[in-house]
Amino acid sequence: MLIGIIGLAILLALALAGVPLGFAFILIGLAGFSIVRGSWDAGLVMAGQQIFDVATNANLVVIPLFILMGEFIHRARLSTELYDAANALLGHRRGGLAMSTIGACAGFASVCGSSLATAATMSKVAMPSMRRYRYADSLSSGSIAAGGTLGILIPPSVPMVIYGLLAEADIGKLFIAGIVPGVLLTILFIAAIAIQVRFSPELGPPGERIPWAARWRAISRIWGIALLFVVIIGGIYFGVFTPTEAAGVGAAGAFLFAITHGKVRMAGIMDALLDAGRTSGMIFLVAYGALIFSNFINLAGFTQAMVTWLEGLHLPGMGIVLAMCFIYIVLGCVFDSLAMILLTIPIFVPILAPFNIDLIWFGIVVIIVVELGLITPPIGMNVFVVQSTIQNVSVWTVFRGVWPFIVAMLVGLALILAFPPIATGLVKLM
Amino acid sequence: MLATLDRVLERALSYCMALLLFAMMAITAVDVIGRYFLSMPIYGGYEIVQFMMALVVFCSLPIATRHDSHLTVSVITGNLKGAAARAHRLFVLLVSLAGAIVIAWRVWVQADILVGSKQISGLLEWPLGPLAYVMAVFAWLTVIILFGLLIAAIAGREVALQRPSLGVD
């Protein structure tokens, strides 16, 4: 137990000192495991075995493939069309351009597994037109940063795959479970904008009203994204594809779309492949590390001690989940989403095991609290991405614009905590 | 001389990774289409993709290391300057080097174990040992790169961190 706590403390210290997380995990996990077992040989063999197993784990093939799909989509410039379509529907309302931003983010999220990519892409597309209509910078940048978080809740989602790996939860089910909460958060975000402009109309003046014929034209242009989403998620839902196959088909579809429709040339394709490969390698490095580290934490009896302690408190399972949410919100001040999931899930999931918590539902809860971390100060990664993509806006302006969305997110989180079927309902129908 | 080697290596690794990743996508997609529409899946396609993934993620290790793009929490240390920044860089490189050595060494030993126990893949019955050796080679390359970065940092030389593009951006 004590050695587990020491290991965790050194790990946090190394991480905060800026050591690449993967290397820190591997070294601490290896040392801790060997000390507890009293044999370096045992630890070394475990480490080698674990690294090889993760690198060749068939379930993880989805990670590089979904990342690649996102890279192609990102380069195919579909984002402009998504924004135009959302704008055609919502733009004429007060605050409508910001609402369109949320809608377009949700659409983009349905074919992209990353929050940062969603926020970065949408900053470039949505910000100029909101500036043109004299939207307050706080509202426009805040809605992009918040909308970006939908990237990891609406499937496909790379953090969900990582969660599935660590919690041994079904990745396909996690994806399906993310759909309704994703739509719910989209609606709550739009409501948050509506309420804001109701009280301060000067934040977001209405745009032009577009005739219905033009609206349909704009909407019909997003068939590519709609088709990809339906094929991938529909395929998983109806059991036509495994998540891996869906990712392969999705990436190939996005590739074809990028070269035909998006006019992406050889250089762009190469860049997409390189970025996707590099991101995958980075994720795998932390994944080997997280598993080696979790072997150590479990062997050290840390998990068992926590479970015994929690059982002694006679808390209901929900109380423990709430406490965990609180820990995430605190950690979110310092760590980014992937780091948080990797650090906590190997510890939290075994603790939850005796309490009969649905791990699919818990996965969605985790994704939402992790998303909160992406937009709350001091380290809201999405906020930084938005701030660095658009010009002349201070981080504080974005943070000021983001707080109504934080409230909306907390409402969404409370709803999902209170009514688990919001997440698990669709899964049960599978 | 070193700079040329650096560039050539970078290109070779990048092309290798890109090609493998593209092949992973193509094989998975063709396998699915073949199975559903032509009832002719690629025999063992699933396993081939699995092996390719192992190569992609290990191939990206030296590339990511060269470009300092590993997942890092830089809240506290992002704004260090002067001697503190240099000491910090040395510390980070040293710990990373230790981590990379563990990976390279243990994956190599794992390859020995796989060869020794004649492990083969489930369907295609390909030997797993050689795959692990190639992975280990990529990992050793990472060690060499970290060593180079460490030497450069000790000598106080800045190492250019160009974007890992193939110069066709």
Characteristics:
heterodimer, A: 430 residues, mainly alpha, 22 helices, 0% strand, B: 169 residues
Can you walk me through this structure?
The complex is a heterodimer of chains A (430) and B (169). Chain A is mainly alpha-helical. In chain A, 79% of the residues lie in helices and 0% in strands. Chain A is built from 22 helices and no strands. In chain A, helix 7 packs antiparallel against helix 8 and helix 13 runs antiparallel to helix 14. The longest helix of chain A has 34 residues. Chain A starts with a helix and ends with a helix. The mean pLDDT of chain A is 88. In chain B, helix 2 runs parallel beside helix 4. Classes of the chains: A mainly alpha (430), B mainly alpha (169). The interface between A and B is large, with 64 and 66 residues.
Give the secondary structure arrangement, pairings included.
The complex is a heterodimer of chains A (about 425) and B (about 170).
Chain A: H1 2-16, H2 21-37, H3 40-55, H4 62-75, H5 78-90, H6 96-109, H7 115-132, H8 137-148, H9 150-153, H10 158-167, H11 171-199, H12 212-220, H13 223-237, H14 243-260, H15 266-299, H16 302-313, H17 317-331, H18 337-352, H19 359-375, H20 381-389, H21 395-418, H22 421-429
Chain B: H1 2-37, H2 45-66, H3 82-116, H4 129-154
